[in-house]
Structure of Protein kinase domain-containing protein:
Amino acid sequence: MDLPAGYEKQIEDYREKHEAVLLRSLGTGTQGTVFTAKNPRQPGLYAVKFHLRKVAYDREVGVYLRLRDLEVFEVCGHQVPQLLSYDDELLAIEMSTVRPPFCLDFGGAYLDKPPDYTPEVWRDWREEKSDDFEDNWPAVEKILDEFRWMGIHIADVNPGNIRF
């Protein structure tokens, strides 16, 4: 399996430490790379996300811990992956897999306060996201409002991580 550049040692260390078999890549983004995985000692498949930057890892783990504490399994009818485990040493997060409709990828989320963007940046962000989601934008706004109510401010939103 070809591994994304920069992740080779981290992934190999994870495989060895967790006795995991990585099956296929689910994608690589700005905050990390995700694989489906299995462990011969546990039933079922799960997803594992690897981060290169601790700040993004810490933010994402914080969001998953908040979702776990609030017992959030879905938002506005969209499934949310459930935190299974995390490894601070290897910057790896294990989570359940989900099928559409879903909300996932919280590496670009902020807890308890939104990013410090100027009003102009927020305006441009809304215009871009409205164009990206087209007719689904009003539903996405409701989803984002629900997350904000939980103290989770999602800045990295796209049709790949909020899917209908």
Observations:
- The longest strand covers residues 21-28.
- The mean pLDDT is 94.
